[in-house]
Amino acid sequence: MRRVLGIVAATTMTIPALTLVSGSTAVAAGERVEVQFPQALGVEAAPAEFLAKIDSSQERTARLFFTLTTGAKKVAADTFDLEYFDARTGTWKSVALESGGAGRLVGATPAAPLRAGNQQMRFRLAVHEVTDPTQYKSFMVGGLTVRTELRGADDSVGAPLAQDTDKVAFAEPQLSLTGLPSRIPTDGAPTEFAVRLKNPTGSWYGPVGLSVRVQQAGDLVENARLEWYNPKLALWQKALPKGEDFEILGATDDFMLPGGYDGTQKLRLTLPSSAAVPGTGEVVAVLYDLGSGGRVLAATGKSVQIVPGAKTGDDDVQLVYDDGRQRADQPAEIEIDNTPTLSPADLAEASSREPSSLDAQRVAGFSGLMLALAGGALALAGRRRRAARC
To answer: Domain residue spans in the chain?
Structure first.
C-alpha cells in the first residue's frame, strides 16, 4: 500500500545552510563538555546519533541537562525523541522532555558516576513532523539550538560545571534531474540522463523507493520506455511496469538512504513514434518512504519538448553493453525482485496512518507540474491497492 501524504519539492522551502557551531565552555576549572551534533537533522527519519564528550577533573556523580530551542512559538514535547545509550544494560533509554517556555523543551539524564579524565556518552535524536500548520515554517527555517549543561547530581540551578551550545538545521532529502535535454525526439533512440539523490542530513531514511514518470498535459505517455543502469550487472534493465510510473530498483543499496548520501541513478528514456504527440511534456521523479505508507520525501520535474522523429515501432529498443556495443544475442531482459521485506509493524503503520494535516500547506502554491504529480502518485497507490486485493 502506498498513500501520498504530502509532496515536498526541493525548491519548496529555502532552509539556510547552517554550519555546525560548537560553543563548549568550561565554567568550572578542569570541567568540559563537548557535544558533536550533525549539521542537519531529517524530519520523520531514523534517529541521528551523536556523542557528548566529557572531561572531568575528579570523580563525581553528575547529570547532563538539555535545552532544545526551536524557531516555533510553541512545540509539543513529542516532537523530539532524545535517548541515551546505557552501557550497563546495552540498551537505549529515553530522556523525558517537557516544555521549558515558548518553543523550548528541557530534559536531563539520570545521575551517573563520572571518573576523572575523559569519557563520552552516546545519544540519538529523532525529529517528528510538526502537526500545527501555523508553526511548520518557523520550525523548519528556525532550526534547532541545543544547550547542554554538565551539572552535579543535585544541582539543577546556578552555574553549571560546563556547557556547550550547538546550532543544527532541519533539512530533507533532495532530488534533481541531470543531463536531461530540453528536446526528446520520438525516434526510438534512447536519451540518457540521471537522477541525483542527496541526503544532506545526519539522519537515514529507509526503505525508500524511486519512481519516474513521463507525462503530457497530466496524462501518462503510455508507450514510453525507461531503463535504469544496474552497476552490479553492468547492464541496462527495463523499468517496470510499462505505461505507469516506472519503479527504479537500484537507486540506492538495500533501499536505504543513509545520512550524507550523494549519488546518481543513470536512466535512459525512449519514445517511439506512437508514444506521444509533439508538444510539451514533463519528466517527474519522486522519492518516497516505503516504511511509512508511501510518504513523499522529495520530488522534482523538468519540462521537455517532445519533437517528431522517424517512424518506429514500440519494441525496437536494443539492449547494449555499458560501452555502447549492441548485444547481438538479445537475451531476455533480466527482472530482479528487490522488493524489501517490511516488518509487521511497518505494514501496520502504513495501513493505519492518516494523511498529515500539513499536506494542504505543503502543496500550496505548487505549479501544475506538482499537481499532475500528485494525481499520478495517487493513481499508482490505487493500482497497488487493487493488486493487493487480487
So the answer is: 21-170, 174-329+340-353
Domains 21-170 and 174-329+340-353 fall in the same CATH topology: yes
243: left (phi over 0), alpha (psi -120 to 50) or beta: left
Are residues 193 and 180 in contact, defined by beta-carbon separation less than 8 angstroms?
yes
pLDDT band of residue 379 (cuts 50, 70, 90) is very low
CATH label, 21-170, candidates 3.40.50.300, 2.60.40.10, 3.30.1200.10, 2.60.120.10: 2.60.40.10
**CATH superfamily name and code, 174-329+340-353:** Immunoglobulins (2.60.40.10)
Lookup result for grid cell 552501557: 87
Nearest 5°: the CA angle 241, 5, 133 is: 160
For 193-211, the pLDDT digits (tens) are 999 999 999 999 988 888 8
pTM above 0.90, yes or no: no
DSSP3 helix / strand / coil % (the chain, rounded to 5)? 15, 45, 45
In this prediction, residue 364 carries a pLDDT of 35
CA dist 71 to 103, 129, 145, 152, Å?
A: 7, 14, 9, 30
Please confirm whether the linkage preceding 355 is cis (ω < 30° from 0): no
- Cα separation, 260 vs 39, in Å, equals 10
Q: What DSSP line would sit under 219-260, residue for residue? A: EE-TT-EEEEEETTTTEEEE-BSTTSPEEES-SSGGG-B-TT
